[in-house]
Amino acid sequence: MSDLGNKEIMSKNIQYYMNKYEKSRLDMCNALGVKYTTFTDWVKGNTYPRIDKIELMANYFGIEKSDLVEEKRERIKKGVTINVVGRVAAGIPIEAIENIIDTEEISEEMAKTGDFFGLQIKGDSMEPKISKGDIVIVRKQNDAENGQIVIATVNGTDATCKRLRKYRDGIELISNNPSYDPMFFSNEEIESKPVKIIGRVVELRSKF
Fold first, then answer.
1. Residue pLDDT, tens place only, 3-59
2. Of 162, 175, 206, 207, which one is the catalytic site residue?
3. CA 96 to chain centre
4. What class, spelled out in words, does domain 7-76 have in CATH?
């Protein structure tokens, strides 16, 4: 309990998770139901949030309250290491990929929800939110909900990162970058090409 009430540690941890999940101060205020000036004081380390607000923040980020209260180095020890790959080719199981370029850590809580891998982004089709060289944390799965960002393989080529849009007669893979047209695939093309979803992006870790 020695760290409880440490405004500086709380400030650093809030900023860490805001950067990690790309949340603005306004996003946080709306999610927590607090005034902008109140939240700014937390970020600057001027004041310390009430325990109910700490709990709300932890739930919002999908972390433990201790992750906000304690020094970050204590949190790192609880992480689970996953491999980051530079490319994913169609038809090759993730486990068989040999071009491991790095590792990342995810929380034990996240690790319990499925199998994960990291993928380094190539190209600028998901700019400005996701840039070339960024790492995305991907949960292995063969389907996703409308609007979610997925990793998919098309025509047996390397996997691509796109936003999924589902229709009755097919799917669309959409880039964030307006310079790229959406790619529509009919239900027949999904089978014949084939088009396969291999995972859902659950987290972005920008590399500056």
1. 446 899 999 999 989 988 888 899 999 999 999 999 999 999 999 999 999 999 999
2. 162
3. 23
4. mainly alpha
